[in-house]
């Protein structure tokens, strides 16, 4: 299994729990972290607006809440029109802490299109729109990307999540999902779906074969970093 993106310690584990469970409140009566952060969707909107990119034009990558230099920030990655964007958005008020962008090679653009198909991203998934025509266009784009790649057999990230959760004995509503993404093959590792979640004080990590759905690796350990 590939290297974890973040290991934030018990503080972020508690913060994630606060975000994952509506109504969480600290025993002291102070506001929960959930009520103090702007939320993933709002942070993404701020980054997209600053980049001049609509959500329909963007291939969203990871959005992760991190504790960095004494403050919580959303680390947001996405690509659009051959450019890869990376933003750090302050979780408390939406201020842009840091941003960068760089051109993406044509080969990487092709792989990103395949990745979008693998993730089964649609306009309705991220933008919550009822525009059926836009949703149909998104579906057509995914099918075209898969056809161009010559690989129509990827199971999709939702199916990979189902496989991991079923193996662990949980429903998605019972866990804090930390990571669910498609990782492209590189010189050291084959392509995989990487699934990580927390449930009942334990952290679960799964590597799922993107074609067969087989569980390649799995690990469970107490979430007490």
Question: Would you tell me which CATH topology of one domain applies?
Answer: Nuclear Transport Factor 2, Chain: A
CATH class of one domain: Alpha Beta
Q: Classify the oligomer.
A: single chain
Rg (C-alpha, Å): 18 Å
Identify the overall geometry. Answer: globular
Largest sheet: 4 strands, antiparallel
Tell me what portion of residues adopts beta-strand conformation.
Answer: 25-35%
Percent helix, as a range, is 25-40%
Low-confidence stretches: 2-31, 120-131, 146-151
Number of DSSP strands? 8
Q: Cα distance, first to last residue?
A: 19 Å
Our count of helices gives 7
CATH architectural grouping of one domain: Roll
Mean pLDDT, as a whole number? 74
Order of helices and strands: HHHEEEEHHHHEEEE
By helix and strand content, what is the structural category? alpha+beta
Spatial arrangement of strands, main beta sheet: 1-2-3-4
What does this structure look like?
The chain is built from seven helices and eight strands, in the order αααββββααααββββ. The protein is α+β, with helices and mostly antiparallel strands and about 220 residues long. Among the domains are: about 45 residues, no CATH class; about 70 residues, Nuclear Transport Factor 2, Chain: A (Roll), CATH 3.10.450.40. Strands 1-2-3-4 form a four-stranded antiparallel beta sheet. A hairpin with a 5-residue loop joins strand 3 and strand 4. Helix 4 crosses helix 6. The radius of gyration is 18 Å and the shape is globular.
């Amino acid at each position: 299994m590939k290297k974890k993106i973040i290991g934030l310690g018990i503080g972020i584990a508690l913060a994630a729990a606060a975000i994952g469970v509506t109504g969480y409140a600290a025993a002291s009566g102070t506001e929960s972290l959930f009520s103090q952060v702007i939320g993933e969707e709002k942070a993404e909107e701020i980054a997209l607006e600053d980049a001049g990119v609509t959500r329909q034009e963007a291939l969203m990558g990871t959005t992760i809440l991190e504790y960095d230099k004494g403050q919580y920030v959303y680390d947001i990655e996405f690509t659009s029109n051959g450019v890869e964007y990376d933003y750090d958005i302050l979780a408390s008020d939406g201020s842009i802490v840091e941003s960068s962008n760089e051109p993406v090679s044509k080969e990487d653009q092709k792989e990103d299109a395949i990745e979008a198909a693998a993730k089964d991203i649609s306009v309705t998934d991220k933008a919550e729109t009822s525009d059926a025509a836009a949703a149909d266009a998104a579906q057509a784009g995914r099918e075209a990307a898969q056809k161009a790649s010559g690989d129509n057999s990827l199971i999709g990230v939702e199916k990979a999540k189902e496989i991991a959760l079923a193996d662990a004995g949980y429903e998605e509503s019972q866990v804090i999902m930390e990571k669910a993404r498609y990782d492209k093959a590189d010189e050291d590792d084959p392509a995989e779906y990487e699934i990580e979640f927390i449930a009942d004080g334990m952290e679960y990590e799964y590597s799922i074969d993107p074609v067969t759905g087989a569980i390649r690796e799995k690990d469970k350990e107490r979430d007490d970093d």
